[in-house]
Amino acid sequence: MTERIHAHEALERAAGELEERVRQRTSQLSATNQRLNREIAEREETGRALRQREGQLAEAQQVAHIGSWEWLIPQNRVSWSDELYRIHGHAPQAFPVTFETAVEHVTAHDAARIRSNVEAALRRAGDQDLPTIEYRITRPDGAERVLLGKAKLRVGPNREPRRMFGTVQDVTEGKQAEREHRIAETLQRSLLPDRLPELPGILLAARYVPAGGDMRVGGDWYDVVQLPGGHVGLAIGDVAGHGLRAASTMGQVRMALRAYALEEPSPARVVRRLDQLVSRLLGSEVVTLVYLVVDLDSGMVRFANAGHPPPLVVEAGGRACYLEHGLAPPLGCDHPELPAEATFRLTPGSTLLLFTDGLVERRDAPICAGLDRLARLAAACDDDVDALCEQLLRRMVGDDVADDIALLALRPVPLVGGRLVVRLPAEPRVLAPLRQTLRRWLREVDAAPDVADDLLLACGEACANVIQHAYGAKEGGLEMDLAVRDGTAEVTVRDHGSWRRPSGVDGGHGLPLLRALMDAVKVQSGPDGTVVRLERRLSGGSRA
Amino acid sequence: MSDLAWVEDEQQGTLCLVRVHGEVDLSNAQDVAAAIGRAVRQEARRLVVDLTDTTYLDSAGVALLLRLATRLQARRRQLRLVVPFNSPVRRVVEFTGLPRVIPVETRLEDALAHRDETLPDDPR
Question: Which candidate, A469, A431, A434, A451, places its Cα nearest to that of B24?
């Protein structure tokens, strides 16, 4: 009995132990299972995150047009990202890539550069960045793309090349925009006068400032045209819009203005013809412009204004006013009537200032406030015209140039006390404007009409001689100094060349003519050049 | 042609009248000479260059007239100039001795009326 009891107890114990073991085992299994499940879930999560990240990377590559690649060097195995295939004009993973197949797409010249970069990097054998390279590829459909490549090399423990990897960016569009911008800018620069004409007795200065920051090129322009009869045409204008189109419209309007200006003495007629041109040929463009013709001799100015901000006149005393007459609609409206034309007299020492709206327009203030401010600043500034332009630009806009600005200033020099000194390049084209200044000077020193004619001819001859004989084929300058002493005009014409003997028919007349026209003629030639001194009494009475 | 001067011509049978407007100096004398040269046709026997509207003429301009005279003489053509008394170019014309080489009239009518019948026809 006891034995049975013992046996039973033992059995129960065994069963309990077994149960316990099973329980333990089960719980162990379940824990393992749970761990496994967790691990599986985690793996799935990681996989999903990885796939998501890969997807995001691929999307990012697609958006940025950047592809990536890796080259396992010992195995010569290259892998390309999907986007890199697309950049090359293929479906993602369309073919296996090797270094050779990769370079095949590149245009010959650029392929050679890439090879030489890679070879140099492999020779240097060390972790390094390869030089960034811009190169062209040809897609299977023939399209050419511009790519920007960056790459790194990684080496193994014995400095043996292991892998190279990098990115490739398709920069074709950016390149095109940049190119267009560059063309527009070059076009615009080439359409502005590269230097202002040298007009004796007149100071001229101009500025062009492109809008800062962004890639825009505007349609602002100015021009100075020498016209028949010693007149000078000044124009400033603004083509609405930016970029290549505005710059090319500006070029056409500028050239047309030059052509019309030479034919039409009336500014209103020039503006009318430009209006017809813009309306009929250039379509929907809006162009504003003010065109003035200045008679350098009398200071009379005629002008017409097609919707442009009015020119500013600052008198020598500091009084400033805008020329608000002569206003017509902008060009391109095909206005049926001849635009109004206004006149005023520009006295010596006064400054005529032409500008485009970029100078006076601010986002935070009305344009009339800008005009008032410009008039105040210009009136307070007694610098020469060049410094005036500089000052006005600095104080009106500073460094924040929101819109293009063109600025043109003209000032007839006051001929104080009868003394006038002009320095000019010794070129035939300066003779006509020189005469214009002389005529003005002769009037201001009260020369009798026949004396004025003789002095005009004598000075012209003396300068023409310098131009013809002083410098040969070289460039050089001439200086003319005019003064009045005791009722006698004293003219000195200097050059720094070495005269050749005048030859042929032309040369023979210069000096005898001077002697016939003047009371006294002295010619001094030295190693530093030649000085011709002329004297003539200003009171009337013909000499010959 | 330059903006300083321009040339108008009028053909009346064997007479060619050329009017020079504006200013002639070293910068445009060659252009003016070329323009006058173009105006003279094959059949022209007489050329009258009218300087009434010429406001400035320097020695380069005088030289062009002298060359023109030489050339026309070689082709047995006649040249006359018109320079009014009060013309601003009167003095340069006189001081350079131009009238010794080319007949100068003060009035256009005189230059046009003058016919030098002694000149034979072009031998060609």
Answer: A431
Q: What is the ipTM of this complex?
A: 0.87
Percentage of chain B lying above the pLDDT 70 cut: 90
Model confidence at B116, in pLDDT bands (50, 70, 90)? low
CATH of domain A191-412: 3.60.40.10
The CATH superfamily assigned to B5-113 is STAS domain (3.30.750.24)
Q: Which residue of A has its CA nearest to B25?
A: A431
Cross-chain CB nearest to B60 (options A432, A464, A544) = A464
Chain B residues touching residue A454 (CB < 8 angstroms): 91
pLDDT given at position A499: 67
Cα(A19)–Cα(A15) distance, rounded to whole angstroms?
Answer: 6
pLDDT at A544: 46
Mean per-residue pLDDT pooled into runs of 10, chain A (544 residues): 80 85 85 87 85 83 86 90 92 88 88 91 89 91 91 91 92 81 74 78 87 65 85 91 78 90 92 90 81 89 94 90 89 84 90 92 82 91 88 84 86 76 87 87 86 93 88 84 90 83 51 89 86 89 51
Residue A55 has a pLDDT of 83
Residues of chain A with C-beta less than 8 angstroms from the C-beta of B91: 453-454, 457, 517, 544
Domain spans of chain A, in order of start: 1-55, 65-170, 191-412, 416-537
Residue A193 phi/psi, 5-degree rounding, is -60, 130
- Residues in B closer than 8 angstroms to A229, CB to CB, are 22
Please determine, for residue B3, whether its predicted confidence score (pLDDT) is greater than 80: no
Of the partner residues B22, B27, B91, the one whose CB lies closest to the CB of residue A457: B91
**Residues of A whose CB is below 8 A from B92:** 457, 513
Question: Does A505 contact chain B (CB < 8 Å)?
Answer: yes
The count of C-alpha atoms lying within 13 angstroms of the C-alpha of B13, restricted to the half-sphere facing its C-beta, is 1
Q: What are phi and psi of A346, to 5 degrees?
A: -95, 110
* Non-local CB neighbours of A222 within 8 Å, separated by 6+ positions: A192, A193, A206, A208, A234, A235, A236, A237, A354, A406, A407, A408
Interface test with B, best of A430, A431, A463, A536 (most B CBs within 10 A): A431
Chain B hits for A460, CB-CB cut-off 8 Å, are: 25, 56, 58
Residues of A in Cβ contact (< 8 Å) with B26: 428, 431, 464, 467-468
Please identify which residue in the block is written with the tokens 């023979």: A508
**Residue A191 Cα distances to A255, A470, B108, angstroms:** 9, 33, 46
- For residue A454, what pLDDT is reported? 93
According to the model, what pLDDT value does residue A310 have? 94
Distance in angstroms (rounded) separating the CA atoms of residues A304 and A235 = 10
A416-537 CATH: 3.30.565.10
Across the interface, which of A431, A505, A517 has its CB nearest the CB of B26? A431
Q: Cα distance from A543 to chain B (closest Cα, Å)?
A: 11
Distance CA B120, CA A410 (A): 60
- Kindly report the CATH number that applies to the domain delimited by A65-170: 3.30.450.20
User: pTM surpassing 0.90?
Assistant: no
**Residue A355: per-residue pLDDT:** 95
Contact (CB<8Å) A431/B27: yes
